[in-house]
């Protein structure tokens, strides 16, 4: 087994172990199954995990297993979180080696607390960070900056994302997307996302996603979604399924003893 495959296997096993620990988790606040995000951050001292154990993508006759896809959100201080993400991709037809793709490290800050923080008005957040090279060895590091505005009401929640990037290939990129979800008090709520992305000099993508989020408990949510996109005139279809949970990193009880 190659060192790269060994790392990916350990990565996936670690995520599954974390799932087993979700019985003591707090409320699930991270944001699957979307490409965009929301204007909220993990509570200080909490680890929020977004995990996709398996997903399938089809593009131009090639089927790819997308797993594990993991996002770790760590509440570092009031209104701030550190975000680490990445996903494994394994070509199925034709077959090929597993690669670590779209990894990065980011900081996210709630600039204006609003309806997602139990206040009035829209919530506004900013996220910025570094894009790590893919394991294929065909890319370099990149940079990203995003602004997010979220508004929650009785009928549902809307999240608007604008992101600019210097890609791993050192091209300019812009992403504009909107997420709409059903009322937060519903245990099973419908969700949708549309976005437009252009990587200048390379490709242009229009994407739509529909799905469901099931709030299984205040500690765990599960999601399933179907995404269809057109990139440079070529269709892409993807099925996503995953879960979100939060684990407290502060051990107050142990300190009190």
Q: Topology of this structure?
A:
Layout: H1 3-20, E1 46-59, E2 62-77, E3 80-93, E4 99-112, E5 123-131, E6 142-153, E7 156-166, E8 172-181, E9 188-199, E10 203-217, E11 220-231, E12 234-248, H2 252-256
Antiparallel strand pairs: 1-2, 1-12, 2-3, 3-4, 4-5, 5-6, 6-7, 7-8, 8-9, 9-10, 10-11, 11-12
List keywords for this structure.
12-stranded antiparallel beta barrel, 2 helices, 12 strands, 60% strand, disordered C terminus
Beta-strand portion reads over 45%
Unreliable runs: 1-29, 253-257
**pLDDT averaged residue by residue:** 87
Shape: globular
Q: What is the CA-atom radius of gyration, in angstroms?
A: 18 Å
Q: Give the class from helix and strand content and strand pairing.
A: mainly beta
Number of strands: 12
List the strand order in the largest sheet: 1-2-3-4-5-6-7-8-9-10-11-12
* Largest sheet entry: 12 strands, antiparallel, barrel
Distance from first to last alpha carbon: 45 Å
Tally of DSSP helical segments:
2
Helix content percent band? under 10%
Report on the structure:
With 257 residues, the protein is mainly beta. The protein is 9% helix and 60% strand. The protein contains 2 helices and 12 strands; from the N terminus they run H-E-E-E-E-E-E-E-E-E-E-E-E-H. It has helices at residues 3-20, 252-256, and strands at 46-59, 62-77, 80-93, 99-112, 123-131, 142-153, 156-166, 172-181, 188-199, 203-217, 220-231, 234-248. A 12-stranded antiparallel beta barrel has the order 1-2-3-4-5-6-7-8-9-10-11-12. Strand 9 and strand 10 (203-217) form a beta hairpin. The chain is globular. It starts with a helix and ends with a helix. Residues 1-29 and 253-257 have low confidence and may be disordered.
């Amino acid at each position: 087994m190659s060192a790269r495959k060994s790392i990916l296997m350990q990565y996936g096993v670690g995520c599954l172990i974390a799932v087993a620990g979700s019985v003591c988790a707090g409320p699930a606040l991270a944001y699957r199954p979307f490409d965009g995000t929301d204007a909220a951050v993990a509570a200080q001292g909490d680890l929020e995990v977004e995990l996709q154990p398996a997903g399938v993508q089809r593009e131009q006759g090639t089927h790819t297993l997308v797993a594990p896809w993991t996002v770790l959100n760590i509440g570092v201080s009031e209104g701030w979180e550190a975000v680490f993400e990445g996903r494994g991709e394994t070509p199925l037809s034709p077959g090929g080696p597993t690669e670590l793709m779209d990894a990065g490290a980011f900081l996210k800050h709630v600039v204006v607390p609003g309806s997602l923080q139990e206040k009035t008005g829209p919530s506004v957040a900013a996220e910025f960070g570094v894009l790590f090279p893919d394991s294929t060895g065909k890319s370099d590091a990149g940079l990203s900056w995003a602004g997010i505005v979220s508004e929650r009401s009785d009928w549902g929640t809307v999240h608007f994302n604008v992101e600019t990037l210097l890609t791993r290939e050192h091209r300019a990129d812009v992403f504009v997307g909107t997420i709409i979800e059903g009322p937060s008090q519903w245990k099973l709520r419908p969700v949708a996302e549309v976005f437009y992305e252009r990587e200048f000099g390379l490709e242009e993508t229009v994407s739509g996603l529909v799905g469901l989020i099931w709030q299984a408990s205040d500690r765990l949510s599960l999601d399933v979604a179907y995404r269809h996109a057109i990139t440079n005139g070529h269709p892409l279809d993807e099925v996503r399924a995953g879960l979100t949970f939060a684990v407290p990193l502060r051990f107050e009880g142990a300190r009190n003893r």
